Amino acid sequence: MIKRTLFLMLLGAVNAQAASFDCAKAKTADEKAICAHLSLNDKDVEMATKYRFLTGLFAMGGRGAMQDEQQAWLEKRRACGGNIRCLGARYDERLRQLNAIYSRIDKPL
Fold this sequence. Notes:
Blueprint: H1 2-15, H2 29-36, H3 38-55, H4 60-79, H5 84-103
């Protein structure tokens, strides 16, 4: 329960920020759409926060696999271009994947 509370506090603190990348430097259609739409921006921050949290829990081998999965997901996101519905679906998909990874972790509490 303590870890979950800490995670939610961290998520809330980060959620107050903008996207997980600098919107002033957004170049691709997907990045521009994320910066222009609050719901996508929020999903981006949530996904990035969960991803960073989870990669910090794994040793190098597991971390490398997660990085490969993240890169593959970023390619899928880029393929959406500026399509808001597609981007939302990609974020929902990735958030489900990250939540599933978290649910499989043995938690001491």
